Amino acid sequence: MSAGAEVKGWCPGALRPMMSGDGLVVRVRPFGARLTRAQVDGLATLAAAHGNGLIDLSSRGNVQVRGVTEESHPKLISGLQRMGLVDATETAERRRNLIVTPFWLTGDGTERFTTELTQALAAPDAPDLPYKFGFAVDTGQQPVLQTASADIRLERDAGAGYILVADGAAVGKPVTSDTIVAEAIALARWFMDNRGEHRRMRKLLAAGADLPPGHFVPRQEQEYQPKPGFTPLGAMVALALGQLQVDTLASLAKHGGVRLTPWRMLLVESARRLPEIEGLITDPDDPLLRVVACTGAPRCLQGHAETRPLARQLASRLPSGQFLHISGCAKGCGHPGKAPLTITATPDGFDLIEDGRAADTPARRNLTPDDIFKAV
Ligand code: SF4
User: pTM for the complete prediction?
Assistant: First the structure.
Protein backbone atom coordinates (compact mmCIF):
# COMPACT_ATOMS: atom_id res chain seq x y z
CA MET A 1 0.00 0.00 0.00
CA SER A 2 1.36 3.39 -0.90
CA ALA A 3 2.31 6.01 1.65
CA GLY A 4 -0.49 7.95 3.28
CA ALA A 5 -3.08 5.21 3.75
CA GLU A 6 -3.77 4.65 7.40
CA VAL A 7 -4.76 1.05 7.99
CA LYS A 8 -7.08 0.89 10.97
CA GLY A 9 -7.72 -2.84 10.63
CA TRP A 10 -11.27 -2.49 11.91
CA CYS A 11 -14.60 -1.23 10.66
CA PRO A 12 -16.97 1.05 12.53
CA GLY A 13 -20.10 -0.32 14.11
CA ALA A 14 -23.00 1.29 15.93
CA LEU A 15 -21.55 0.51 19.36
CA ARG A 16 -18.01 1.29 18.25
CA PRO A 17 -18.25 4.29 15.91
CA MET A 18 -15.27 5.68 14.01
CA MET A 19 -14.20 9.33 14.03
CA SER A 20 -14.19 10.94 10.62
CA GLY A 21 -13.78 14.45 9.22
CA ASP A 22 -17.46 15.25 9.82
CA GLY A 23 -17.90 13.58 13.19
CA LEU A 24 -18.58 10.01 14.23
CA VAL A 25 -19.61 7.45 11.62
CA VAL A 26 -22.17 5.06 13.14
CA ARG A 27 -22.54 1.93 11.07
CA VAL A 28 -25.85 0.13 11.47
CA ARG A 29 -25.92 -3.52 10.39
CA PRO A 30 -29.60 -4.32 9.82
CA PHE A 31 -30.41 -7.88 10.91
CA GLY A 32 -31.01 -10.12 7.92
CA ALA A 33 -29.89 -7.22 5.66
CA ARG A 34 -33.45 -5.90 5.80
CA LEU A 35 -35.25 -2.90 7.23
CA THR A 36 -39.00 -2.85 7.72
CA ARG A 37 -40.88 0.20 6.58
CA ALA A 38 -41.08 1.45 10.18
CA GLN A 39 -37.33 0.94 10.60
CA VAL A 40 -36.55 2.88 7.41
CA ASP A 41 -38.70 5.75 8.64
CA GLY A 42 -37.29 5.56 12.18
CA LEU A 43 -33.71 5.47 10.93
CA ALA A 44 -34.30 8.60 8.81
CA THR A 45 -35.77 10.39 11.85
CA LEU A 46 -32.87 9.34 14.11
CA ALA A 47 -30.21 10.27 11.55
CA ALA A 48 -31.81 13.71 11.12
CA ALA A 49 -31.96 14.27 14.88
CA HIS A 50 -28.53 12.95 15.84
CA GLY A 51 -26.37 13.13 12.69
CA ASN A 52 -25.67 15.71 9.98
CA GLY A 53 -28.37 14.44 7.60
CA LEU A 54 -26.10 12.29 5.45
CA ILE A 55 -26.33 8.52 5.18
CA ASP A 56 -23.96 6.18 3.33
CA LEU A 57 -24.54 2.67 2.14
CA SER A 58 -21.37 0.63 2.58
CA SER A 59 -19.96 -2.02 0.24
CA ARG A 60 -21.11 -4.58 2.84
CA GLY A 61 -24.70 -3.36 2.62
CA ASN A 62 -24.61 -1.49 5.92
CA VAL A 63 -26.11 1.92 6.64
CA GLN A 64 -23.76 4.60 7.97
CA VAL A 65 -25.14 7.58 9.83
CA ARG A 66 -22.66 10.46 9.52
CA GLY A 67 -21.94 13.53 11.59
CA VAL A 68 -22.83 12.02 14.97
CA THR A 69 -21.29 13.68 18.05
CA GLU A 70 -20.07 12.20 21.33
CA GLU A 71 -23.13 13.77 22.91
CA SER A 72 -25.68 12.54 20.37
CA HIS A 73 -24.26 9.01 20.06
CA PRO A 74 -25.94 7.57 23.20
CA LYS A 75 -29.30 9.00 22.13
CA LEU A 76 -28.90 7.54 18.66
CA ILE A 77 -28.02 4.14 20.13
CA SER A 78 -31.05 4.06 22.43
CA GLY A 79 -33.28 4.93 19.46
CA LEU A 80 -31.69 2.16 17.39
CA GLN A 81 -32.12 -0.26 20.29
CA ARG A 82 -35.82 0.53 20.49
CA MET A 83 -36.11 -0.43 16.82
CA GLY A 84 -34.14 -3.67 17.26
CA LEU A 85 -31.22 -2.48 15.15
CA VAL A 86 -28.31 -3.00 17.55
CA ASP A 87 -26.53 -6.12 18.78
CA ALA A 88 -26.34 -6.94 22.47
CA THR A 89 -22.57 -6.45 22.60
CA GLU A 90 -19.78 -4.86 20.60
CA THR A 91 -18.26 -8.30 20.03
CA ALA A 92 -21.49 -9.71 18.59
CA GLU A 93 -21.79 -6.66 16.34
CA ARG A 94 -18.24 -7.02 15.07
CA ARG A 95 -18.60 -10.71 14.28
CA ARG A 96 -21.95 -10.35 12.51
CA ASN A 97 -20.40 -9.63 9.17
CA LEU A 98 -23.05 -10.97 6.79
CA ILE A 99 -24.29 -10.07 3.36
CA VAL A 100 -27.53 -11.62 2.15
CA THR A 101 -29.03 -12.05 -1.30
CA PRO A 102 -31.83 -9.50 -1.70
CA PHE A 103 -33.69 -11.98 -3.92
CA TRP A 104 -34.64 -14.46 -1.20
CA LEU A 105 -38.11 -15.95 -1.15
CA THR A 106 -40.05 -16.98 1.91
CA GLY A 107 -39.14 -20.59 2.69
CA ASP A 108 -36.07 -20.82 0.43
CA GLY A 109 -33.81 -21.21 3.47
CA THR A 110 -32.13 -17.80 3.29
CA GLU A 111 -33.98 -16.23 6.24
CA ARG A 112 -33.43 -19.33 8.37
CA PHE A 113 -29.71 -19.58 7.58
CA THR A 114 -29.19 -15.87 8.22
CA THR A 115 -30.92 -16.10 11.60
CA GLU A 116 -29.03 -19.24 12.61
CA LEU A 117 -25.71 -17.80 11.49
CA THR A 118 -26.43 -14.58 13.41
CA GLN A 119 -27.09 -16.63 16.55
CA ALA A 120 -24.03 -18.83 16.04
CA LEU A 121 -21.74 -15.82 15.62
CA ALA A 122 -23.14 -14.24 18.80
CA ALA A 123 -22.47 -17.37 20.88
CA PRO A 124 -19.72 -16.99 23.52
CA ASP A 125 -17.63 -19.72 21.87
CA ALA A 126 -17.93 -18.35 18.31
CA PRO A 127 -14.61 -18.11 16.45
CA ASP A 128 -12.92 -14.77 17.00
CA LEU A 129 -12.60 -13.92 13.30
CA PRO A 130 -10.58 -11.01 11.86
CA TYR A 131 -12.52 -7.77 11.46
CA LYS A 132 -13.18 -7.92 7.75
CA PHE A 133 -13.85 -11.67 7.58
CA GLY A 134 -17.43 -12.21 6.48
CA PHE A 135 -20.14 -14.55 5.23
CA ALA A 136 -22.38 -14.36 2.15
CA VAL A 137 -25.79 -16.02 2.38
CA ASP A 138 -26.38 -16.39 -1.35
CA THR A 139 -29.04 -19.10 -1.31
CA GLY A 140 -31.63 -17.57 -3.60
CA GLN A 141 -32.48 -19.29 -6.88
CA GLN A 142 -29.36 -17.90 -8.61
CA PRO A 143 -26.06 -16.72 -7.15
CA VAL A 144 -25.80 -12.92 -7.08
CA LEU A 145 -23.12 -12.20 -4.45
CA GLN A 146 -20.10 -13.92 -5.99
CA THR A 147 -18.27 -10.66 -6.72
CA ALA A 148 -19.07 -9.13 -3.32
CA SER A 149 -16.55 -9.38 -0.51
CA ALA A 150 -17.01 -12.47 1.68
CA ASP A 151 -14.86 -15.32 2.98
CA ILE A 152 -17.39 -18.11 3.45
CA ARG A 153 -20.26 -18.41 1.00
CA LEU A 154 -23.51 -20.32 1.36
CA GLU A 155 -24.72 -21.10 -2.18
CA ARG A 156 -26.73 -23.53 -4.26
CA ASP A 157 -25.24 -25.96 -6.75
CA ALA A 158 -26.64 -26.55 -10.25
CA GLY A 159 -29.10 -29.10 -8.87
CA ALA A 160 -30.46 -26.57 -6.31
CA GLY A 161 -28.77 -28.37 -3.38
CA TYR A 162 -26.81 -26.30 -0.89
CA ILE A 163 -23.03 -25.99 -0.94
CA LEU A 164 -20.56 -24.25 1.31
CA VAL A 165 -17.77 -22.40 -0.48
CA ALA A 166 -14.47 -21.05 0.82
CA ASP A 167 -13.85 -17.80 -1.06
CA GLY A 168 -11.33 -18.36 -3.82
CA ALA A 169 -12.28 -22.01 -4.37
CA ALA A 170 -14.00 -23.20 -7.56
CA VAL A 171 -15.83 -26.00 -5.75
CA GLY A 172 -17.95 -26.27 -2.63
CA LYS A 173 -18.87 -28.80 0.01
CA PRO A 174 -22.34 -30.36 -0.25
CA VAL A 175 -24.41 -29.63 2.85
CA THR A 176 -28.07 -29.75 3.84
CA SER A 177 -30.37 -27.11 5.22
CA ASP A 178 -29.81 -28.68 8.65
CA THR A 179 -26.01 -28.73 8.48
CA ILE A 180 -25.13 -25.64 6.43
CA VAL A 181 -24.70 -23.22 9.34
CA ALA A 182 -22.78 -25.64 11.56
CA GLU A 183 -20.53 -26.42 8.58
CA ALA A 184 -20.00 -22.70 7.94
CA ILE A 185 -18.86 -22.22 11.53
CA ALA A 186 -16.63 -25.30 11.26
CA LEU A 187 -15.02 -23.83 8.14
CA ALA A 188 -14.48 -20.56 10.01
CA ARG A 189 -12.76 -22.52 12.81
CA TRP A 190 -10.61 -24.30 10.22
CA PHE A 191 -9.58 -20.90 8.88
CA MET A 192 -8.62 -19.71 12.36
CA ASP A 193 -6.56 -22.85 12.99
CA ASN A 194 -4.71 -22.58 9.68
CA ARG A 195 -4.58 -18.89 8.82
CA GLY A 196 -1.09 -18.02 10.03
CA GLU A 197 -0.73 -14.32 9.16
CA HIS A 198 -3.63 -14.29 6.72
CA ARG A 199 -6.80 -12.38 7.50
CA ARG A 200 -8.90 -13.40 4.48
CA MET A 201 -9.82 -16.84 3.13
CA ARG A 202 -8.87 -16.06 -0.48
CA LYS A 203 -5.35 -15.07 0.55
CA LEU A 204 -4.93 -18.23 2.60
CA LEU A 205 -6.00 -20.46 -0.31
CA ALA A 206 -3.85 -18.49 -2.76
CA ALA A 207 -0.89 -19.15 -0.46
CA GLY A 208 -1.41 -22.87 -1.03
CA ALA A 209 -3.53 -24.02 1.91
CA ASP A 210 -5.48 -27.22 1.24
CA LEU A 211 -9.13 -27.10 2.22
CA PRO A 212 -10.43 -29.81 4.55
CA PRO A 213 -11.92 -32.87 2.77
CA GLY A 214 -15.34 -32.75 1.10
CA HIS A 215 -15.07 -29.71 -1.17
CA PHE A 216 -15.68 -31.08 -4.67
CA VAL A 217 -19.02 -29.82 -6.04
CA PRO A 218 -18.64 -27.28 -8.90
CA ARG A 219 -20.13 -23.87 -8.20
CA GLN A 220 -22.74 -22.22 -10.39
CA GLU A 221 -21.40 -19.26 -12.31
CA GLN A 222 -23.06 -15.94 -11.58
CA GLU A 223 -24.82 -14.31 -14.51
CA TYR A 224 -26.60 -11.59 -12.56
CA GLN A 225 -25.36 -8.03 -13.07
CA PRO A 226 -26.68 -5.60 -10.45
CA LYS A 227 -28.66 -2.74 -11.95
CA PRO A 228 -31.61 -0.54 -11.03
CA GLY A 229 -35.02 -1.55 -12.28
CA PHE A 230 -38.13 -3.48 -11.38
CA THR A 231 -37.87 -7.11 -10.28
CA PRO A 232 -40.56 -9.57 -9.25
CA LEU A 233 -39.68 -8.76 -5.64
CA GLY A 234 -39.75 -4.99 -5.88
CA ALA A 235 -37.87 -1.97 -7.20
CA MET A 236 -34.08 -1.93 -7.17
CA VAL A 237 -32.88 1.65 -6.74
CA ALA A 238 -29.30 2.90 -6.67
CA LEU A 239 -27.89 5.67 -4.51
CA ALA A 240 -25.87 8.26 -6.38
CA LEU A 241 -22.27 7.61 -5.25
CA GLY A 242 -23.55 5.45 -2.41
CA GLN A 243 -24.88 8.33 -0.34
CA LEU A 244 -28.31 9.80 0.41
CA GLN A 245 -29.93 12.51 2.46
CA VAL A 246 -32.26 11.64 5.32
CA ASP A 247 -35.17 13.20 3.40
CA THR A 248 -34.59 10.74 0.57
CA LEU A 249 -34.67 7.87 3.04
CA ALA A 250 -37.84 9.24 4.62
CA SER A 251 -39.49 9.44 1.17
CA LEU A 252 -38.47 5.87 0.44
CA ALA A 253 -40.10 4.69 3.67
CA LYS A 254 -43.49 5.55 2.19
CA HIS A 255 -43.07 2.81 -0.42
CA GLY A 256 -42.03 -0.25 1.55
CA GLY A 257 -39.40 -2.03 3.58
CA VAL A 258 -35.95 -2.35 2.01
CA ARG A 259 -33.43 -5.12 1.51
CA LEU A 260 -29.83 -3.99 1.58
CA THR A 261 -27.27 -5.00 -1.00
CA PRO A 262 -23.48 -4.68 -1.35
CA TRP A 263 -23.96 -2.72 -4.63
CA ARG A 264 -25.03 0.64 -3.15
CA MET A 265 -28.55 -0.28 -4.17
CA LEU A 266 -31.69 -0.97 -2.17
CA LEU A 267 -34.50 -3.31 -3.10
CA VAL A 268 -37.77 -1.62 -2.16
CA GLU A 269 -39.98 -4.57 -1.29
CA SER A 270 -43.10 -5.02 -3.41
CA ALA A 271 -42.76 -1.61 -5.09
CA ARG A 272 -44.21 -1.82 -8.60
CA ARG A 273 -43.95 1.89 -9.34
CA LEU A 274 -41.81 4.60 -7.81
CA PRO A 275 -42.10 8.35 -8.22
CA GLU A 276 -38.96 10.38 -8.89
CA ILE A 277 -37.17 10.64 -5.56
CA GLU A 278 -34.22 13.00 -5.51
CA GLY A 279 -30.92 11.19 -4.99
CA LEU A 280 -32.16 7.81 -6.19
CA ILE A 281 -31.19 6.33 -9.54
CA THR A 282 -33.78 4.21 -11.32
CA ASP A 283 -32.34 4.38 -14.85
CA PRO A 284 -29.84 1.57 -15.51
CA ASP A 285 -28.06 3.83 -18.04
CA ASP A 286 -27.45 6.68 -15.60
CA PRO A 287 -23.76 7.71 -15.98
CA LEU A 288 -23.38 7.96 -12.20
CA LEU A 289 -23.58 4.16 -12.09
CA ARG A 290 -20.26 4.06 -13.96
CA VAL A 291 -18.33 5.59 -11.06
CA VAL A 292 -17.78 4.65 -7.47
CA ALA A 293 -16.10 7.02 -5.04
CA CYS A 294 -15.33 6.74 -1.36
CA THR A 295 -16.10 9.50 1.13
CA GLY A 296 -12.77 11.24 0.48
CA ALA A 297 -11.65 14.58 1.93
CA PRO A 298 -12.73 16.49 3.89
CA ARG A 299 -15.26 14.12 5.49
CA CYS A 300 -12.66 11.34 5.73
CA LEU A 301 -9.56 12.32 7.66
CA GLN A 302 -7.36 10.02 5.56
CA GLY A 303 -8.49 11.49 2.24
CA HIS A 304 -5.90 13.38 0.18
CA ALA A 305 -8.52 14.94 -2.11
CA GLU A 306 -12.24 15.32 -2.62
CA THR A 307 -13.54 12.34 -4.55
CA ARG A 308 -17.26 12.77 -5.13
CA PRO A 309 -17.20 16.11 -7.03
CA LEU A 310 -14.53 14.64 -9.32
CA ALA A 311 -16.62 11.48 -9.76
CA ARG A 312 -19.67 13.53 -10.78
CA GLN A 313 -17.62 15.47 -13.32
CA LEU A 314 -16.02 12.37 -14.80
CA ALA A 315 -19.14 10.19 -14.91
CA SER A 316 -20.67 11.85 -17.97
CA ARG A 317 -17.39 11.46 -19.88
CA LEU A 318 -17.29 7.71 -19.40
CA PRO A 319 -18.69 5.59 -22.23
CA SER A 320 -21.45 3.10 -21.44
CA GLY A 321 -19.96 -0.08 -20.00
CA GLN A 322 -16.90 1.72 -18.59
CA PHE A 323 -16.30 1.70 -14.82
CA LEU A 324 -14.12 3.99 -12.77
CA HIS A 325 -13.18 3.91 -9.09
CA ILE A 326 -12.00 7.11 -7.40
CA SER A 327 -10.34 6.67 -4.03
CA GLY A 328 -9.31 9.35 -1.56
CA CYS A 329 -6.32 7.26 -0.48
CA ALA A 330 -4.76 3.86 -1.13
CA LYS A 331 -7.07 2.12 1.32
CA GLY A 332 -9.76 1.84 -1.35
CA CYS A 333 -12.79 1.52 0.94
CA GLY A 334 -15.20 2.53 -1.83
CA HIS A 335 -14.38 -0.50 -3.96
CA PRO A 336 -12.05 -3.05 -2.35
CA GLY A 337 -11.80 -5.13 -5.54
CA LYS A 338 -10.14 -4.47 -8.88
CA ALA A 339 -11.57 -1.95 -11.34
CA PRO A 340 -10.65 -1.38 -15.00
CA LEU A 341 -9.58 2.15 -14.03
CA THR A 342 -8.83 3.47 -10.55
CA ILE A 343 -7.77 6.97 -9.58
CA THR A 344 -6.13 7.16 -6.17
CA ALA A 345 -5.45 10.49 -4.49
CA THR A 346 -2.00 10.83 -2.94
CA PRO A 347 -0.19 13.70 -1.20
CA ASP A 348 1.32 14.53 -4.64
CA GLY A 349 -1.73 14.39 -6.90
CA PHE A 350 -3.59 11.45 -8.38
CA ASP A 351 -2.31 8.04 -9.45
CA LEU A 352 -3.97 6.17 -12.30
CA ILE A 353 -4.15 2.39 -11.94
CA GLU A 354 -5.25 0.09 -14.74
CA ASP A 355 -7.07 -3.13 -13.93
CA GLY A 356 -6.20 -3.03 -10.27
CA ARG A 357 -7.01 -1.88 -6.76
CA ALA A 358 -6.48 1.53 -5.20
CA ALA A 359 -3.17 0.44 -3.63
CA ASP A 360 -1.73 -1.25 -6.74
CA THR A 361 1.21 0.02 -8.76
CA PRO A 362 0.03 2.93 -10.90
CA ALA A 363 0.46 3.18 -14.68
CA ARG A 364 0.78 6.97 -14.23
CA ARG A 365 1.61 9.02 -11.14
CA ASN A 366 1.12 12.52 -9.77
CA LEU A 367 -1.61 13.57 -12.20
CA THR A 368 -3.59 16.81 -11.91
CA PRO A 369 -7.39 16.87 -12.35
CA ASP A 370 -6.79 18.23 -15.89
CA ASP A 371 -4.53 15.28 -16.68
CA ILE A 372 -7.29 12.96 -15.49
CA PHE A 373 -9.92 14.59 -17.71
CA LYS A 374 -7.64 14.03 -20.68
CA ALA A 375 -6.84 10.44 -19.67
CA VAL A 376 -10.43 9.28 -19.10
S1 SF4 B 1 -10.34 5.12 0.83
FE2 SF4 B 1 -11.52 7.01 1.03
S3 SF4 B 1 -12.94 6.66 2.72
FE4 SF4 B 1 -11.35 5.06 2.83
S5 SF4 B 1 -9.82 5.89 4.24
FE6 SF4 B 1 -9.18 6.48 2.18
S7 SF4 B 1 -10.08 8.49 1.81
FE8 SF4 B 1 -11.11 7.59 3.57
Answer: 0.91
